[in-house]
Amino acid sequence: MIVITTPTGDIGARVLDHVLEAGRDVRLIARNPSSLPDGLSRRVEVVEGSHADPEVIGRALPGAERVFWLPPGNPDSPSAEAAYIEFSLAFCEALGSSSVTHVVGVSALGRGWPKPAGLVTASLQMDDMIADTGVNYCSLACASLMDNILRQAGPIRDDGVFDQPTPGDLKLPHVAKADVAAVAASLLLAPDWRGVAEVSLYGPEDLSFAEMAAIMSAVLDRPVAFREMPMEQFEEMMLAIGASEGMARSYVEMLTAKNEGMDTMAIPRARGETPTTFRQWCEEELRPAIAA
C-alpha cells in the first residue's frame, strides 16, 4: 500500500497518476475529497482530512509500506516552521510504530547554506526530523520550479511581462514539476534503496529570467519581457494576496538566498533525472495555459 499526500496538488496528482498506472494499491489523504477526479474513489482508498492531523494520520498509515510526503506550505501559515516542521510532527510521531518502511519527500536545494533561507531552512529541518525516525527516507531537493511561472499567466497573456525579485541576468537552475513527480514515483515503485538520501533535482540547464523571457517569446510567438521587482515590493505583494507576515518574510529569505547563490553552490550530490527543458515546459504547460 502506498499513501499519497496532496493528491490534488500539481506534484501529488502526477505522482498518483504514475502509481496508478503501475497498478499499485493506493490510499490518499485529501482535505477535500470532492476535488478528486470523478471516478477515482472507486480505484483508491481515501482518508479525509489534513495530513497534519494525528487522527487522520492514524487512519492513513495502518498497512501502508510507502508514503509520498509533501506539506502544502500554505502561505497563510504563521511561519515556515509551522508550515513544514509543525505540520509534519504527527506524521513523524506515528512512523515509529507504523508499518511504513520508505518515505519520499519533496524539499529544496540548500543544505549547507550558512544563512537563513526561509522556506528552504524549514523544509530541510523537516527532512532531518523525518530521517531521525529511522525510516528509509529520500528527500527530493528541488531547484526553483518552472511551473511557478504559471502564477503570472495573466500578466504574460495580457501585458507581455512577468516579474521576479531577481536580477535578470542571474543564471539559476529550474526544474519541472512533472520531472519531480516522475522521480518521486520511481522511488516509491521500486523501494530497493535504504537509509537516508537526498537527490538533487536541478533541471537540465541553468537559465536567467531574461533568457526565459526570450524562450517564452519564441514559443508563444509574442513578445514577453522580464521585469525585476524590488524585494520590498515582492514582500508587500505576498502580504496583499494573503500571506502571513512570517511566511512573507520566509519567502523573502528564500529568494534572497537563491539570489546570493544558494542553489548553485558546489556541494556534490546525487542528481535525479530531470530532462524537461524550459522550452519544452513552455510548449507543454505555459502555451496551453495562455491560450485557455
Strand content: 15-25%
What is the number of beta strands? 13
CATH superfamily: NAD(P)-binding Rossmann-like Domain
Overall radius of gyration: 19 Å
Helical content band: 25-40%
CATH class (first level) name = Alpha Beta
Our count of domains comes out at 1
CATH topology label: Rossmann fold
Instruction: List unreliable stretches of 5+ residues.
Output: none
Give the CA-CA distance, first to last residue: 37 Å
Task: Specify the structural class.
Answer: alpha/beta
General form = globular
Task: Quickly count the helices.
Answer: 11
Order of strands, widest sheet: 3-2-1-4-5-6-10-13
SSE sequence, one letter per element: EHEEHEHHEHEEHEEHEEHEHHEH
Largest sheet, if any? 8 strands, parallel
Mean pLDDT: 95
The CATH architecture classification is 3-Layer(aba) Sandwich
Key attributes of the depicted protein:
alpha/beta; 11 helices; globular; 3-stranded mixed beta sheet; 8-stranded parallel beta sheet; 292 residues; Rossmann fold
Could you please describe the fold and organization of this structure?
It is globular, with a radius of gyration of 19 Å. The longest helix is centred in the last third of the chain and has 15 residues, at 245-259. It has helices spanning 10-21, 54-60, 80-85, 89-95, 119-131, 153-159, 177-189, 209-220, 231-240, 245-259, 278-291; strands spanning 2-4, 26-30, 45-48, 66-69, 102-108, 136-142, 144-145, 161-164, 172-175, 196-201, 206-207, 225-228, 270-271. Helix 6 crosses helix 11 (278-291). The chain starts with a strand and ends with a helix. With 292 residues, the protein is α/β, with parallel strands linked by helices. The protein has 11 helices and 13 strands. The protein has an 8-stranded parallel sheet with strand order 3-2-1-4-5-6-10-13, with helices on both faces. A 3-stranded mixed sheet has the order 7-9-11. Strands 8-12 form a two-stranded parallel sheet. The protein has one domain (2-291): NAD(P)-binding Rossmann-like Domain (Rossmann fold, 3-Layer(aba) Sandwich), CATH 3.40.50.
